[in-house]
């Protein structure tokens, strides 16, 4: 088995990374969104060490999130300019899809249902049926300001201020869009209180559609299951991570956990924190599998490729040091780790 390798992509984004995401079909196409108002498309088809920048897509304002659409040639972006845009990655054509009344924090696409979901700081979700463009989009009011959004094969999970987590059923969304209903008609499949006391920073759904993980600004991760039975809910747990002993020996320095990503093959997950480290966890066995070498700056974003071969890591300065004049230029990097065959395999896996 070849040893795992790790490379830095060049050129890196010009400012802080907001998201990294691999294409749904090819594991060699990577999109990176940045506060420098650009989205970057990298090509890893010749291997991580030979990766190159294929294209750059300029926006009017910082790009807070990016996701692929129905194919490897389509992407959607969430902007500080309140807009959700669709990008044809081949031609570079950019089309306004949705407009909010405040910056758009997250955008996600459900390939199973053809539904586009965007979450904005105007406390709303916009839902589009991309398979039926003539259908009227739904605008769903949220009880809090969304901080993180994730999609599983059947669910949409939104983590908000006030420790509120809403879970929506994608089948119900699809039906309501087909019927021409209104956003007021869409009720959460479940509404939960977060297991974490402090503000949610990241959210990721399990690839097997069983549940999700959330992380907070206070160095903790929680793992929960969708099934609303006493047995399933008794399985949920939270743990401390991304903390370092204080230099004076008095307690810990606690860092935010900025990023979470599940491995599509093994179901393990990675967390990235303000301490500059990435850790790999076995959700079922409740144990840490590995911690990677520390980066010089905060880990802002993570993504596994669909075949589980690559882990993309977005690194840039955070606000952990309380710096006033923020500048990610020259300190931002995107790292691609090529995983060993069993590197992300859980200890309990056969």
Main structural class: mainly beta
Mean pLDDT: 93
Number of helices: 2
Rounded to the nearest angstrom, the distance between the terminal CA atoms is 18 Å
- Contiguous runs where pLDDT drops below 50 for at least 5 residues: none
Kindly estimate the percentage of residues that lie in beta strands according to DSSP: over 45%
Please describe the biggest sheet, giving its number of strands, its sense, and whether it closes into a barrel. Answer: 4 strands, antiparallel
Q: Which strand order does the major sheet show? A: 1-30-29-28
User: What is the number of beta strands?
Assistant: 30
Shape: globular
Rounded to an integer, what's the Rg over CA atoms? 19 Å
The helicity comes to under 10%
In short:
The protein is mainly β and 350 residues long.
Fold topology:
Layout: E1 5-8, E2 17-22, E3 29-34, E4 38-43, E5 52-58, E6 63-68, E7 74-79, E8 83-88, E9 94-99, E10 104-110, E11 115-120, E12 124-129, E13 138-141, E14 146-151, E15 155-160, E16 164-169, H1 170-179, E17 190-193, E18 200-205, E19 211-216, E20 220-225, H2 230-234, E21 237-240, E22 243-245, E23 252-254, E24 257-262, E25 269-273, E26 278-282, E27 287-291, E28 298-304, E29 310-316, E30 333-338
């Amino acid at each position: 088995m070849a040893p795992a390798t790790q490379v830095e992509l060049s050129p890196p984004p010009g400012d802080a990374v907001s998201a990294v995401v691999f294409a749904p079909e090819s594991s060699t196409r990577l999109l990176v969104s940045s506060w420098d108002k650009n989205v970057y498309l990298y090509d890893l088809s010749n291997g991580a060490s030979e990766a190159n920048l294929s294209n750059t897509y300029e926006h009017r304002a910082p790009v807070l999130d990016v996701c692929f659409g129905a194919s490897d040639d389509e992407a959607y972006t969430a902007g500080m300019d309140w807009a959700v845009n669709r990008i044809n990655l081949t031609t570079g054509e950019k089309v306004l899809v949705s407009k909010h009344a405040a910056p758009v924090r997250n955008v996600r696409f459900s390939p199973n249902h053809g539904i586009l979901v965007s979450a904005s700081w105007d406390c709303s979700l916009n839902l589009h049926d991309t398979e039926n463009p003539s259908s009227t989009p739904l605008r769903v009011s949220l009880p809090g300001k969304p901080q993180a959004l994730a999609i599983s094969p059947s669910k949409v999970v939104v983590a908000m201020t006030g420790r509120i987590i809403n879970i929506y059923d994608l089948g119900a969304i699809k039906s309501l869009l087909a019927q021409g209903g209104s956003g007021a008609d869409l009720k959460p499949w479940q509404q939960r209180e977060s297991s974490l006391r402090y503000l949610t920073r990241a959210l990721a759904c399990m690839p097997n559609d069983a549940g999700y993980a959330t992380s907070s600004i206070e160095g903790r991760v929680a793992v929960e299951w969708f099934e609303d039975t006493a047995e399933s809910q008794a399985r949920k747990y939270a743990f401390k991570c991304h903390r370092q002993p204080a230099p004076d020996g008095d307690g810990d320095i606690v860092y935010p956990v900025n990023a979470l990503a599940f491995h599509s093959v093994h179901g393990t997950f990675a967390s990235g924190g303000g301490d500059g480290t990435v850790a790999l966890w076995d959700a079922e066995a409740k144990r840490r599998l590995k911690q990677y070498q520390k980066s010089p700056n905060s880990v802002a974003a993570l993504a596994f490729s669909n075949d589980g071969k690559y882990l993309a890591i977005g690194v840039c300065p955070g606000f952990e040091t309380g710096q006033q004049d923020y500048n990610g230029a020259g300190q931002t990097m995107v790292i691609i780790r090529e995983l060993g065959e069993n590197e992300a395999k859980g200890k309990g896996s056969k």
